[in-house]
Amino acid sequence: MRHSEFWARMEHHLGSSYATSWASQQSIAALGNRTVDEALEAGVPPQAVWRAVHAVLELPATER
Predict the structure, then answer these.
(1) What pLDDT digit, counting tens, does each position of 24-55 carry?
(2) Which is nearest to 13 in space by CA: 57, 61, 62?
(3) How many CA atoms lie within 13 A of 20 on its CB side?
(4) Which sign, positive or negative, has the C-alpha torsion 17, 4, 53, 13?
(5) Which residues lie below 8 Å from residue 57, measured CB to CB, with a gap of 6+?
(6) According to the 3-state scheme, what is the secondary structure of the chain?
(7) What's the CA gap between 53 and 9, in Å, rounded?
(8) What is the pTM of this model?
(9) What value does the mean pLDDT of the chain take?
């Protein structure tokens, strides 16, 4: 998954303005208690970050 696809999914589920805010504020245990932004900056692949976001948001399996 490319970063652009990751952000498109985030915006689809959270809205464009809330997605960026959520990504910078919400710590996720599966990402080592890092935010989405911190995980991506640390080099965690977007697909792995998406899986963690997917779990936290409790999205349907079809959205994986």
Answers:
(1) 999 999 999 999 999 999 999 999 999 999 99
(2) 57
(3) 3
(4) positive
(5) 13, 14
(6) CCHHHHHHHHHHHHCHHHHHHHHHHCEEHHHCCEEHHHHHHCCCCHHHHHHHHHHHHCCCHHHC
(7) 10
(8) 0.91
(9) 94
